[in-house]
Amino acid sequence: MDKCVTLRFNPFALLTSAATLRIAQGAFLLSCSLPLSAKTVQILLLNGDRITGDLIAETPTQLQVQTAYAAMLYLDKTQVSEVKDTQRTAVPAATADTTTNTSPVVIASSNSTSKPERAWQLEVDISASTRRGKEQSDNLSATSHWEWRDAAWRYSAGAEFDYEIKQNLRKTHKYTINPGVDYFYSEQIFGRTKLDYSYNYLAADYKNLDASLGPGFSFFKDRAELRLELMSLLGVKRAYFRGDEFLSALLGQRDSILFRFASLDYDYQYQPPNSDLEWYAKGSILKMLNQPIELLDFKFEWHNELGARYWLTDKIRISWSIHHDRTGLDLVLGDGSVHPLDIKDFRQKLSIGASF
Known about the structure:
single chain; mainly beta; SH3 type barrels; twelve-stranded antiparallel β-barrel; disordered N terminus
């Protein structure tokens, strides 16, 4: 006798399975938006800025961060490079679409064509010229600047070389090197330590070594296209002399002198949105705090550079700059008369360079 097998269809079971699936999906999406147990993190943005605060919540497209210096921030993940906790464990930013969010404070995509800041940057500029006519001259100069940002630390180093021959004689032959380290106590306040070393093959004060430190303040941290920093420093300068009979008579048996000084340094860069033109200025004003030579009054040193860069591509640019250096120096004789001996240098430079 044949057995008959009956298959029964239960629509309620199918509905129950579908409902279970929807509930699971909803629970997953809900879990992605639930507040996290607040932990202190440091968030690195694609423009180079760093934000420190408590990570309150996270969704597939957004991070919610409470900072001590601003209101609640809602960060678009498309602008986040990585997230580090207090133990410096890096968490890569999740891939997300560009969904527009309507949170009160949002760091969103920028429409500016300005170059985004990176954790490290290297710039090199070279200028060379030859002139033939009544006066013959050859000039070569090269400058470079390297900067690297790691959490609260920023390391930098600059170098410059100038060489000029005029009428078959050397007119300029010098180089400078200036490494420095900054530590950021907050997004805008930092401490700076730096060294400045210069060597001039043709000058009587042929070698200078400066060491200084002090606080600094960084303005406009919320604007990637604008940089303005001011530094107030205290330091010591040692100047070395040679080959000058007048200075030898003043120095006696010494070949160097030591100054204490205070200085104000500045660094300004601005590239307007949707523009290939960038303006910059940098320099220092240095005031001597003591006078190691009785008959000489070293008043100040002033070093300034003002210029503009035009970006041919995202890496190659041409630059035009003005350099103005001045040293305030007086000769004070025994009868009280003062004779200015100021040293001035003014020059222009057209360069081609690259940024990496």
